[in-house]
Amino acid sequence: MTLNRRTFVKISGAAAALPLLGSHAFAQLEKIKIGFIYVGSINDNGYNYAHNQGRIFVEEALGDKVETIFVENVPEGPDCERVLRELAQQGCNLIFATSFGFGDSVVKVAAQFPDIAFEHATGYMPGPNIGLYNARFYEGRAVCGTIAGHMSKTGKAGYIGSFPIPEVVMGINALALSGRRINPAFTVKPVYISTWNDPAKEADAARAMIDQGIDIIAQHTDGPAALQVAAERGIIGGFGQGADMSAFAPETQLTAIIDNWGPHYLASAEAVLAGTWTPGNTWEGLKENVVEMGPYGAKVPEDVVADAEKVRTGQIDGSFHIFTGPIKDNTGAERVAAGVVMTDAELLSMDWYVEGVEQPA
Amino acid sequence: MELMIAILVTVVGAATPILIAALGELVVERSGVLNLGVEGMMLIGAIAGFVVQFHTGNPYLALLCGAAAGMAASLIFGFLTLSLSANQTATGLALTIFGTGFSALAGSSYSARPVTLMQPLFPAELATHPIAKVIFGYSFPIYFSFIMVVAIWYFLHRTRAGLILRAVGENDQSAHSIGYSVIGVRYLAVMFGGAMAGIAGACFPLLLTPQWAERMTAGRGWIAVALVVFASWKPFRLLAGAYLFGLVMTMELYAKAGGGPLSVIPSELWAALPYLATVVVLVLISLRRDASTNAPACLGKPFLPAN
Predict the structure, then answer these.
(1) Residue B25 main-chain phi, psi, to 5 deg
(2) Residue in chain A nearest B11 by alpha carbon
(3) Per-residue DSSP letters for B66-117?
(4) How many CB atoms lie within 10 A of CB B145?
């Protein structure tokens, strides 16, 4: 078709009418090609590893009907846009962008490829062909906090954080609230190291906290370094993050928070195959098995396991929500009134610490 | 008191890989070659050390293989810059990129597999008293780093071979005209630097955290390169500089984790201190314009015989 003035008017007229149709309708497919982009390495034993396990889960479930491509170590920025565009041009029908910082690039590229379904993890910018998905990691933190509250002898836990973003703050608060239900004097000391992946620095941060009296450690960075130091120094224990890290510290891991993206990835892939995909906005947790708990360590006494299980199942059947008032912040001011449950929007913008969390230096 | 000793032990751990890598780079730069590939050679040393430790459980063999791997990587650099006269800056940067990618590839099947940390060199009975722990509580690479500071100082300033190496770095044409092999000396220096970077890299899985993680040196190779300038190409200043950097890196974390006396200096100030110190040192260097504080005259320039 040559592009003369008449066809141009037709096309632009049709394009102008498109938004009136509402969400874009997708065709049914025989076979699907899925692209994944990861911010780090699939061998990080944590966050990116877990996403890649989800990709493998889809491949195993759909067999011949699916082809997947993945690109790892994609920096958040202009490179991401280029990688997304390449995946789109290679014929992907569905693309998962798995890091918060990919959001701007997804919005740009998705607008250029309206026939491709995009899904962005932990983001907040939806679109006609951009779905959002996230996991309620804080539910797992509440289970860890229960164990920490019971088992800590000094009543002090340490928490290695990457950056003070709401996702991380929420986890610290969930651990503190949960621990204080058991031991009202329980405190959490956060240390931010300004990186997702610097094992030597994670280890030194763990050493610094242990030398100053904490005896349980949690981390929201990508690797198992903190757990290894906990084992080396012989403190009570720590928790795996993103994946079961018991191989690194068999005696010391008390339990782990495992990200299980597979079922969500499979559901999205099947929806695209069936032509029924619509951009969703999901934030699932223990109930949907998107967050799972690792095995309880041998050190954890039976009554503590029972209490931790109560917290876990309570979150699954909806009878327990860790962010239920009354909640005070760490200056003593009441933030959430008794009986009130914080909304998702409030959680996703959390920038204050609950009582019992030492203000980070 | 116990906290002070704990801090000191952590500082020593944090400073040692940087010191070892920087010592190697110091010798390389004294011969007139600028190798910016330290980070890449460290990563190659780290994965080599990890793999050997994983399969044999022998940390000394692991260090040795880390050294060999770092040396092999440095030979690529040496061939390109010394034999083919390629641009040293660009080749060094390429070596870092290569080392990052190669170590990730070589290590891809070793994630989720822990190794055992290297044990202290002296029997534990010697290190029971807190003060004794500061002296006898470390594993081999830490003593090695001290020995190398003295050895490299002695080599550079008290031996004939060291004099030749410095001559090559200061005036390659003159050294060549009186019959020394400039390229040969520089090859040896580059290989030594590679071996030291490899050992420094192997310290990460053996000394600091017993695992393999991609990019686990996290930029410390660049600190090592910067330290050589900071130390104005002198081994004992390098020792002081590495411990200063180790101290502030560690104290930042202790200040963040601690209440009480440690938080008197805010962690942000601790984090900024190395940069402030670098500025101060650079100012001092520029004030003292005698030759002893200046860079080797031929640093970074390819050698093309004038005859």
Answers:
(1) -65, -35
(2) A204
(3) HHHHHHHHHHHHHIIIIIS---HHHHHHHHHHHHHHHHHHHTGGGTT---PP
(4) 26
Q: Which residues of B touch A208 (CB under 8 A)?
A: 10, 250, 253-254, 256-258
- The residues of A whose Cβ lies within 8 A of any Cβ of B are 40-41, 43-45, 49, 73, 158, 189, 191-193, 195, 197-205, 207-209, 211-212, 214, 222-225, 228-229, 232, 243, 247-249, 358, 360-361
Strand duo A32-37 + A66-71: pairing: parallel
- Please answer whether residues B96 and B89 qualify as being in contact, where contact means their C-beta atoms are separated by less than 8 angstroms: no
Q: Which of A301, A148, A174 is nearest to A236 (CA)?
A: A148
Q: Which helix (H) or strand (E) holds A37?
A: strand A32-37
**Closest-CA residue to B186 (of B36, B28, B71):** B28
Cβ–Cβ under 8 Å, residues A292 and A310? no
The C-alpha atoms of residue A300 and residue A151 are separated, in whole angstroms, by 8
Look at residue B109 in the predicted model and tell me its pLDDT.
87
Distance from CA of A44 to the nearest CA of B (A): 6
C-alpha pair distances (Å), B240 with each of A345, B111, B187, B227, B244: 51, 35, 28, 10, 6
Q: The tokens of B127 are what? A: 């290190």
pTM here is 0.86
Give Cα B26 to chain centroid, integer Å: 9
**Residue range B256-263: mean pLDDT, rounded:** 72
Span A148-195, pLDDT tens digits: 999 999 999 999 998 898 889 999 999 999 999 999 999 999 999 988
- Using CA atoms, how far residue A299 sits from A278, A302, A305, in Å, is 46, 9, 10
Tokens encoding B249: 């890196």
Please answer yes or no on whether A205 and B209 come within 8 Å at the CB atom: no
| Helix (H) or strand (E) segment spanning residue A335 | strand A334-336
Q: Is the dihedral of CA A34, A35, A41, A47 positive or negative?
A: negative
Matching residue, tokens 């010391």: A252
Tell me how close the Cα of B219 comes to any Cα of chain A, in angstroms. Answer: 9
Q: B182 pLDDT exceeds 90? A: yes
Rounded Cα gap, residues B188 and B53, in angstroms: 27
Distance CA B138, CA B142 (A): 6
> Residue B233 above 70 pLDDT?
yes
The two tokens of residue A303 are: 């009554």
Residue of chain A with shortest Cα separation from B12: A204
List, in order, residues 6 or more apart from B154 with CB less than 8 Å away: B162
ipTM: 0.88
What 3-state DSSP class applies to B233? coil
CA distance A317 to B140: 55
Task: For chain B, positions 199-258, list CB contacts with chain A under 8 A.
Answer: 204, 208-211, 213-218, 220, 249-250, 253-258
For A338, the enclosing helix (H) or strand (E) is none
